[in-house]
Design goal:
Blueprint: E1 6-9, E2 33-36, E3 42-45, H1 47-53, E4 62-67
């Protein structure tokens, strides 16, 4: 049974709260959540911003993003799990 708290994504999402750098590009801080914020709109958020602005997980609240086929730099095991230290081939 799907509890609607996680979703697999094939490419990394980046936190919407991190500011644009001097070149006008979004800072590439990997988002671990896609969720409603306490301000109303939904956003991709890193762990820190989710704790600050997220409203929870589940249907109508938000999902934890699981990167499909992530390879963790720490363990190099290739398991499908989330790790903010993933290798990016982007």
């Amino acid at each position: 049974m799907n509890d609607h708290t996680t979703v697999e994504v094939s490419t990394p999402h980046y936190c919407d709260f991190h500011v644009v750098d001097s070149k006008g590009e979004q800072a590439k801080v990997i988002a671990e959540y896609d969720a409603a914020t306490s301000m109303g709109p939904w956003a991709d958020m890193c762990e820190s911003h989710f704790r600050q602005f997220g409203t929870g997980l589940g249907l109508g609240k938000g999902q934890r993003l699981i990167l499909k086929s992530a390879i963790c730099k720490s363990c190099e095991d290739g398991l499908t799990h989330w790790c903010s230290k993933i290798k990016e081939d982007v």
